[in-house]
TrEMBL record:
Residues 64-87 are annotated as: Disordered. PANTHER family: FELS-1 PROPHAGE TRANSCRIPTIONAL REGULATOR, PTHR40661. Keywords: DNA-binding, Transcription, Transcription regulation. The lineage of its organism: Bacteria, Pseudomonadati, Pseudomonadota, Betaproteobacteria, Burkholderiales. Residues 66-87 have a biased composition (Polar residues). The keyword Transcription regulation applies. Residues 7-61 form the HTH cro/C1-type domain. InterPro entries: Cro/C1-type_HTH, Lambda_DNA-bd_dom_sf, LexA-like, LexA/Signal_pep-like_sf, Peptidase_S24_S26A/B/C. It holds the Pfam family HTH_3. CDD domains: HTH_XRE, S24_LexA-like. One of its GO terms (molecular function) is DNA binding. Coiled coil: none annotated. This is HTH cro/C1-type domain-containing protein.
Amino acid sequence: MTIHTRIKELRAAAELSLESLAARLGVSWQTVQQWEKGKTTPSIKRIEAIAEALNTTREYLLFGESPQTKTGQSSVSTESEGANVTESSAQAVPLRYSVDVKNFRRVFVVGRAQGGLPERIWTDGDYPVGATDEYAELATTDPHAFLSPIVGTSMVPKFNPGDFAFVEPGTAPEIEDDVLVRLNTGETMLKRLISRRGGIQLASYNEPGTLLYQPEEITWMYYVAHYVPARKIKHRM
């Protein structure tokens, strides 16, 4: 079984249509269809989001194994499966991917105060300001990664109320990335970065219009890797 068939089978098991999975990932349904047919293979960055959307692990998608079966770091080639690390080329090339289970750790939920998230997520210590007893076990190399509750419906269907945004401040946001933005007024919002010309231009997935802010109006803007479903959230004992 290849990564392509695993994506297709997991999508079917989750009773998701091509359109539904595509909406969660922020891609077209044709892109998902090409993955499943083996015409293209999602990038490593995209595989992480697919795993979250299908309630599995990236290791299972890549190798047919869960991270719990890994005891260290390995480099695996799936050349025989015709895997490809780009979405734009149909030519099969070896997919080499290093799995390091040490990257799986507790990422805590930072609670929202009445006015939004705090000006500083992290103090000089190693524990985020406003961190709750809730967390998810996620793979990240960003020591400052955190989870933020999703409120509102402007980013549906990719981000649904009740789920959580996985924020990695160490990754610089690029155009078309999802971002968590805090204004100097204290307002915090989850949006899509669509332009930096003439200011920071933000948009939603299901609401018309855009928002424009000057850089000096923004306290911080952090990269959002993907959503984390509420069922993945655990409580610290």
